[in-house]
Design goal:
single chain; about 220 residues; alpha+beta; Jelly Rolls; five-stranded mixed β-sheet; globular
Length: about 220
Amino acid sequence: MDSGDSIALAAGFLIVLFVAMLVHPEYLAVLQIPFSVEVPEAGTSPQIRIPAEPTPVSEVQIPVIPALPGSRGPLYRITYTDRPYSYPLYLLPDNMETFGASELPARTLEWVPFAFVEDTRGGLTKVFSVPYPVWVINSTVIAKTRPQYSIFRMVLCSAESGEIVEGEEILNRGTSYRIVQTSNTGMYMVISTENIDSFYIRLETPRNYYDAYRPAGS
């Protein structure tokens, strides 16, 4: 293969990649794979460089914030990472319907919020772990501008393997609940949004767990 064919092949690869990003813009938020194409010298082939191994990601333990019995402390804000390429690579599944309809937490329990994610765009959150053995992902999507075209997707992934722990999809707008029974394990959220005004995710745990994990003397 001469240099002209190599350059044409590399150009074709970049065009296909560009079209894929236009059709699925959320891939940019999920993958963020830094690569570069070196311009070849005469008689040589183009070199495409992709980092072979991601660097480890740091984990943030959501703190147990002191609060008086029957009350609650301030909420811990989970933000997006600026190093998404250091995470296990994991695309949102094509079929989000596999996660089923919204779950219904027990109405006889008082659910206390302890952390939240709030934004208008998608991305990957920083890695976090939850101290409580049972908790709920309470997601609300607001879409007033183009509600008929709005889509919100979220998957909760293991920071070690990238395997999906839970997931949900909200079409148009509304609220969804997901019950999680994973604690003291590094996790992160992959979030994709289309035509929404904003979303708000609250992490909540039953009052008995919230009070039981409160530091002694607080």
